[in-house]
Amino acid sequence: MALKRELRLRRSRDFQRVRQQGRSVASKLLVLAWAPTESDQVRVGFVVSRRIFKLATRRNRIKRLLSEAIRPCLPRLRGVDIVLIPRREALEVDLQTLRADVQTLLRRARLLLTDEAFGRQRAAGRSVHKGR
Q: How far is Cα of residue 43 from the mean position of the Cα atoms in its chain?
């Protein structure tokens, strides 16, 4: 199932802002770019190059896989726009491998809330993203 509309980056200028003004980390499978926002909202976008994946069906498949890979992490993210850019090798791995890679990149970028901070926000009654 796709991410809710309010959880997705949709405008070209938002993607450009993240890529130009944000920071990034990379792995063998993915590039994760992010930029802080003024709200607590988290939005995620996917950029899948035609140069890497020629067929639209393959580009769409990797977007669906990335969407599912980041979904479990959404409740532990706050106030950031994220762009995920897959590399060619990403199409050859399964969902569990992509999920682990996304979590590793989010930890390296220090974007995931710690267990303690996550618990405090839940106790304070802040909404937790359901992603559905």
A: 8
CB environment 61-85: b (16+ within 10 A), e (fewer): ebbebbbbbbbebbbbbbebbbbbb
Q: CA-based Rg of the chain, rounded to a whole angstrom?
A: 14
On the 0-12 / 13-18 / 19+ scale of CB atoms within 10 A, 41 is middle
Residues 101-126 as b/e (b if ≥16 CB within 10 A, e otherwise) read bbbebbeebebbbeeeebeebeeeee
Full-model pTM: 0.84
pLDDT by 10s per residue, the chain, length 132: 678 999 999 999 999 999 999 999 999 999 999 999 999 999 999 999 999 889 999 999 999 999 999 999 999 999 999 999 999 999 899 999 999 999 999 999 999 987 655 555 555 555 545 444
**Pairing mode, strands 42-46 and 30-36:** unpaired
Q: For residues 63 and 57, what is the distance between their CA atoms, to the nearest angstrom?
A: 10
